[in-house]
Amino acid sequence: xxxxxxxxxxxxxxxxxxxxxxxxxxxxxxxxxxxxxxxxxxxxxxxxxxxxxxxxxxxxxxxxxxxxxxxxxxxxxxxxxxxxxxxxxxxxxxxxxxxxxxxxxxxxxxxxxxxxxxxxxxxxxxxxxxxxxxxxxxxxxxxxxxxxxxxxxxxxxxxxxxxxxxxxxxxxxxxxxxxxxxxxxxxxxxxxxxxxxxxxxxxxxxxxxxxxxxxxxxxxxxxxxxxxxxxxxxxxxxxxxxxxxxxxxxxxxxxxxx
Length: 258
What we know:
With 258 residues, the protein is mainly alpha-helical.
């Protein structure tokens, strides 16, 4: 870090800064991540607009996780603007549009979220090659179907995207897809498939100590076991959710598990 702070124009500087910012973000150090990303933004687009767009992408995700969705949307729009005339980066435009879906939905603008998600999916399906599809796969339209209680449609969409997301299973998008897949299966009483997806999700999150979601998955797993009448398993997983939610400081889910 100290070397990078002194030599901002050294070879591979921007790649290294993006990596540092991504790590800081995943550790929950969102403000530290934003400091690094602002170094790229301050440098502008003269050399490679990809780095500027990617910096805005990560900035937007930081703001999303801080609950500042209007700021997140502004970042995603600026990222799209940086690469809008570059066909070779169409996949990044698709990614940035999919990022918008989550924030629009969080702000209560459900129809706008759905409109953006469908447009992004059409671009993903029709304009990208297989490698680009792998880099920009997203389940956000599937999450909308889930929230609309269209569970079969949600499952079909998420399973399609999982084929691409699992190739980069280290990214957050893959365990998130497994969570919604498990939750969707539980809603239509396919409990074995639900349990398989939720346990797979936990197997990825627990080694990473991803405290912001582990309790949510345990809570869903407990609710699924309750629905199938496995009361001991349900109580065990509610207790795990209770402990994990307390550690994460998520008192809404803490109360829910209780």
